[in-house]
Amino acid sequence: MTVKVKFWGVRGSIACPSSNHVVYGGNTSCVEVSDGACNIILDAGTGIRALGQDYVRRHVGAGVLLLTHTHWDHINGFPFFSPIYVPGWRFRVLAGHLTDMGGIQSVLANQMTEPTFPVPLSALKAEMSYEDFLAGDVLTDLSPGLVVRTAPLRHPNHATGYRLELDGKVVCYVTDTEHVPGSPDRNVLDLINGADLVIYDSTYSDAEFPNKVGWGHSTWQEGVRLCRQAGVKRLAIFHHDPDHVDEDMARIEREAQAMWSGAMVSRDNMVVEL
Fold this sequence. Notes:
- The chain has helices spanning 48-58, 72-75, 104-111, 186-192, 220-230, 246-259; strands at residues 4-9, 30-34, 39-42, 62-67, 90-95, 127-132, 138-139, 146-153, 159-166, 169-174, 197-201, 234-238, 263-265, 271-273.
- The strands form two sheets. It has a seven-stranded mixed β-sheet. It has a seven-stranded mixed β-sheet with strand order 7-8-9-10-11-12-13.
- The protein is globular.
- By secondary structure, the chain is of the alpha/beta class.
- The chain contains six helices and 14 strands.
- It starts with a strand and ends with a strand.
């Protein structure tokens, strides 16, 4: 069975709806992983709005939303995900970093509270389940045949990386995370080992990184190094800096593919089939 990965939002930090972000896209983080029966959503940035419209067109009916963390760029599309307002739909929402901060339901409810947002979480009409786990847990009850392994990532306020094992394929989603130069992150290496596709936080280049230490992000070169070391088949460069316009992204794509043929730059609406 084919596992499809669709990128609905690939930008980091803030959405960039400008003429300089047309080719690679300006929506913030949202990735769909599906095999026709299993529907997994990774993060709820602005890209989830178009995903929701697509779900409604296809009458999908249910899904699982896995959040890496709850910084704005990863959840600000959630209130605009139209299926959650439709009676009869079912969604599970999970996060692995909030057990000591009130839990994921509390965080989403606070986001959707006046005076910053006029529609409360209680207005959702779909059947919603909000669940918290600890990064490092293995999740086996999300969908038949799916195993999700998790790991803590280095990021302010914490974040969770995901390894989805489905139909004999492995997709890893590793954003937002900061590396230590010269010291490969063992949590990441173990998570991505032998994966078919790794989606990795590549906000900066190695040259830009020294001025961004402590910001919680990594580089596309580190993504290549980790994937090579872990025997990964393909790397999707992801979570693009909003200051990196199409010209910059095209250059990064050329340089990344020259460094390793398994690397590619993700863009809004790109589909990868495994």
